[in-house]
């Protein structure tokens, strides 16, 4: 049984990668950093080729996760090349993302074992089913967000805290220390907001006398200082700025200078009223049941709820800032669901309880099907690039200008399939068709180029333009539209089908509305 659950977790995380292989702008720093480490290596002479010197982003971010991901992916890329699974660079993006998804899925598999030990086998099954039928966490497990990198060590820490006998009243001294050390490391290197989860956890452990102040201070100092040394060492090198501690810089820039509010301010309650329901789906009501029926769950949920309240104090709110609480709420929900399904089946109440759990899981699946399909249609830049590479694959000289929207919705460096760098050190050319051809196309991402300037630029042969500016481009008589790429707008109820009332039309009751986003243009 436990093997089946582990395979299910891995399969769901991987399926999301394969179904939506492209990336968005939030992921691009870490994705491109991974690309650069893979392609150029980490020697000082390679650094000038790195993308972050051209497109640094609003604040510097850490390379620690990307370097580890690239190194972890390398042997797999070699293997995939050897067995002819790699056709061009875009396949490398899928491999890198699969490695990340697998690492995060393994975190959840480990956590499931701890749940099984502390709350019993049925709760661990429901924990996995709830996690796999949700959308956000499985979909993002393989996406190179800083928060995704942070999720793995946070889950390892949770594993250490939860993994104990069902009647144990205190976590083991060493488990608690290791968990605090992991969370300190994560807060220092990956995401500063983890400190808001760590603080209530430490406070709870001190109040319950699970640890002593002396030991907290010792772990904080030793682990905090060595993590700071690590991130300053690695990131000062890659950014060529001394000394650079990216998370501290981000904290200073976004929180102390209040820059994050420029991205938008939401009311205090938004994490509880919008983001948490979206992340948890039906695990939210189930977690309330879990909290009511089990004192251990109340103790478990105290730190994440304190975290949510603390982080609600920041004006700018995004679901990914609080993604770390999902595993804990899923444990609570699994406990609640276990209680519901173990009521006496003979009674009406017992049967209703059982049905409600089945119904809530089915509801999760339905919501996830729609969210997944919408997300798959939400990367027009990636689809446009794939189409472009396909259409002009036989040409030798191409200089394509890529609009901002295309760059933000999937046109990552891995999709520059007909331009250097070619990973000859990882894949020999006879295993890798596009390496053998070694074309030197130019994928030009220069921002703020006026449409007229684009027409006048003699070396530019093609453009992937936004629909809004394409009209202006086509007016100039220089361009021919070659292909149009749509993007997701919304779901709409299909009233015609409802009138017909056919059973087999059930799947078409809701239809996806798309609209043109990008146009591939060729110069006449
Ligand atoms: C927990 O239960 C096990 C077996 O049922 C028992 O051996 C152990 O002493 C119990 N521990 C505590 C802390 O009650
Ligand atoms: C990209 O396009 C712009 C605008 O046409 C041009 O100024 C720039 O030189 C191009 N970049 C490269 C690398 O060719």
From TrEMBL:
<comment type="function">
    <text>Mannosyltransferase that operates in the biosynthetic pathway of dolichol-linked oligosaccharides, the glycan precursors employed in protein asparagine (N)-glycosylation. The assembly of dolichol-linked oligosaccharides begins on the cytosolic side of the endoplasmic reticulum membrane and finishes in its lumen. The sequential addition of sugars to dolichol pyrophosphate produces dolichol-linked oligosaccharides containing fourteen sugars, including two GlcNAcs, nine mannoses and three glucoses.</text>
</comment>
<feature type="transmembrane region" description="Helical">
    <location>
        <begin position="215"/>
        <end position="239"/>
    </location>
</feature>
<feature type="transmembrane region" description="Helical">
    <location>
        <begin position="121"/>
        <end position="141"/>
    </location>
</feature>
<feature type="transmembrane region" description="Helical">
    <location>
        <begin position="348"/>
        <end position="371"/>
    </location>
</feature>
<comment type="pathway">
    <text>Protein modification; protein glycosylation.</text>
</comment>
<keyword id="KW-0732">Signal</keyword>
<comment type="similarity">
    <text>Belongs to the glycosyltransferase 22 family.</text>
</comment>
<dbReference type="InterPro" id="IPR005599">
    <property type="entry name" value="GPI_mannosylTrfase"/>
</dbReference>
<feature type="transmembrane region" description="Helical">
    <location>
        <begin position="268"/>
        <end position="290"/>
    </location>
</feature>
<feature type="transmembrane region" description="Helical">
    <location>
        <begin position="178"/>
        <end position="203"/>
    </location>
</feature>
<protein>
    <recommendedName>
        <fullName>Mannosyltransferase</fullName>
        <ecNumber>2.4.1.-</ecNumber>
    </recommendedName>
</protein>
<keyword id="KW-0812">Transmembrane</keyword>
<dbReference type="GO" id="GO:0006487">
    <property type="term" value="P:protein N-linked glycosylation"/>
</dbReference>
<feature type="signal peptide">
    <location>
        <begin position="1"/>
        <end position="20"/>
    </location>
</feature>
<keyword id="KW-0328">Glycosyltransferase</keyword>
<dbReference type="GO" id="GO:0052917">
    <property type="term" value="F:dol-P-Man:Man(7)GlcNAc(2)-PP-Dol alpha-1,6-mannosyltransferase activity"/>
</dbReference>
<keyword id="KW-1133">Transmembrane helix</keyword>
<dbReference type="GO" id="GO:0005789">
    <property type="term" value="C:endoplasmic reticulum membrane"/>
</dbReference>
<keyword id="KW-0472">Membrane</keyword>
<dbReference type="Pfam" id="PF03901">
    <property type="entry name" value="Glyco_transf_22"/>
</dbReference>
<feature type="transmembrane region" description="Helical">
    <location>
        <begin position="94"/>
        <end position="115"/>
    </location>
</feature>
<feature type="transmembrane region" description="Helical">
    <location>
        <begin position="321"/>
        <end position="341"/>
    </location>
</feature>
<keyword id="KW-0256">Endoplasmic reticulum</keyword>
<feature type="transmembrane region" description="Helical">
    <location>
        <begin position="297"/>
        <end position="315"/>
    </location>
</feature>
<keyword id="KW-0808">Transferase</keyword>
């Amino acid at each position: 049984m436990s093997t089946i659950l582990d395979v299910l977790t891995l399969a769901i995380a991987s399926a999301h990668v394969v179904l939506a292989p492209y990336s968005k702008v939030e992921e691009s720093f870490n994705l491109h950093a991974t690309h650069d480490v893979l392609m150029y290596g980490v020697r000082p002479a390679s650094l000038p080729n790195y993308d972050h010197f051209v497109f640094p982003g609003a604040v510097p971010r850490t390379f620690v996760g990307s370097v580890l991901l690239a190194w972890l992916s390398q042997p797999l890329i070699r293997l995939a090349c050897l067995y002819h699974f790699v056709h061009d660079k875009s396949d490398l993006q899928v491999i890198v993302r699969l490695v990340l998804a697998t690492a995060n899925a393994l975190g959840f598999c480990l956590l499931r074992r701890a749940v099984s030990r502390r709350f019993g086998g049925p709760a661990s099954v429901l924990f996995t089913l709830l996690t796999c039928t949700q959308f956000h966490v499985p979909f993002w497990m393989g996406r190179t967000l800083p928060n995704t990198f942070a999720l793995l060590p946070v889950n390892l820490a949770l594993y250490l805290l939860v993994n104990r006998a069902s009647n144990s009243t205190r976590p083991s001294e060493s488990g608690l220390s290791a968990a605090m050390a992991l969370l300190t490391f994560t807060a220092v290197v990956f995401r500063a907001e983890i400190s808001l989860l760590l603080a209530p956890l430490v406070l709870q452990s001190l109040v319950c006398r699970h640890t002593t102040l002396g030991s907290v201070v010792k772990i904080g100092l030793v682990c905090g200082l060595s993590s700071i040394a690590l991130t300053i060492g690695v990131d000062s090198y890659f950014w060529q700025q001394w000394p650079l501690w990216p998370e501290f810089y981000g904290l200073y820039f976004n929180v102390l200078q209040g820059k994050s509010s420029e991205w938008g301010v939401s009311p205090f309650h938004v994490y509880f009223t919008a983001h948490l329901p979206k992340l948890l789906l039906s695990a939210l009501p189930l977690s309330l049941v879990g909290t009511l029926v089990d004192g251990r769950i109340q103790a478990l949920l105290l730190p994440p709820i304190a975290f949510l309240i603390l982080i609600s104090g920041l004006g700018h709110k995004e679901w990914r800032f609080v993604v770390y609480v999902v595993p804990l709420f899923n444990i609570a929900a699994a406990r609640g669901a276990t209680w519901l399904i173990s009521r006496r089946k003979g009674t009406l109440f017992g049967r209703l309880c059982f049905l409600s759990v089945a119904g809530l899981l089915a509801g999760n699946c339905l919501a996830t099907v729609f969210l997944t399909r919408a997300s798959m249609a939400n990367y027009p830049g990636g689809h446009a690039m794939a189409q472009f590479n396909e259409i002009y694959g036989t040409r030798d000289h191409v200089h394509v200008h890529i609009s901002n929207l295309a760059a933000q919705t999937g046109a990552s460096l891995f999709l520059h399939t007909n331009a250097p760098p070619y990973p000859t050190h990882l894949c020999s050319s006879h295993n890798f068709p596009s390496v053998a051809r070694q074309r030197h196309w130019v994928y030009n991402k220069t921002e703020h180029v006026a449409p007229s300037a684009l027409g006048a630029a003699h070396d530019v042969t093609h453009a992937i333009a936004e629909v809004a500016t394409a009209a202006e481009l086509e007016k100039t008589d220089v361009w021919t539209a070659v292909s149009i790429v749509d993007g997701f707008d919304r779901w709409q109820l299909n009233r015609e089908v409802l009138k017909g009332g056919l059973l087999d039309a059930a799947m078409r009751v809701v239809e996806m509305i798309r609209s043109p986003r990008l146009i591939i243009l060729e110069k006449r």
